[in-house]
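Aim 2 progress update. The chain analyzed this quarter is reproduced below.
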Amino acid sequence: MKRRGCSVTWPSEIDRNVAVECMLDVMNRFPAEIDAQLNHFSRAHGLHLSTRYRDEGVRSFQIVDDQSALFQLWLEHGQGGWNVRAWDYGSRRSEHLAASGGLGSALEAAYQDVLMWIRELGHTKSSA
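Predicted structure tokens:
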């Protein structure tokens, strides 16, 4: 069995744990065109794109304001397509559905939500 491409003939006599790992590896992947758009957004706003959390593939950005308040943007795949979610690690949350080809505008809308929350706190976005 090839681990990288997960080409497995099913059913086979492979170890069940390897099959589960392989399945999770495939599920944790994000399409290259999504990563390209996320990388563009990352560069445009000076944000670090996180791609792993524990053993899961994720796509998220952490935003820190000048008073060290934390905010997060992340991408999830739902029934209607890609959802861009934002929160302040508290009660503020927003969600924007990315229509086909509209991931950039959904990311920008969620980012603007976070900037608004930062302004409401009387803070500014940290440059680092």
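Residues 103-120 form the longest helix (18 residues). The beta strands are 49-53, 56-64, 70-78, 81-87, 93-98. These observations will guide the mutagenesis experiments scheduled for the next reporting period.
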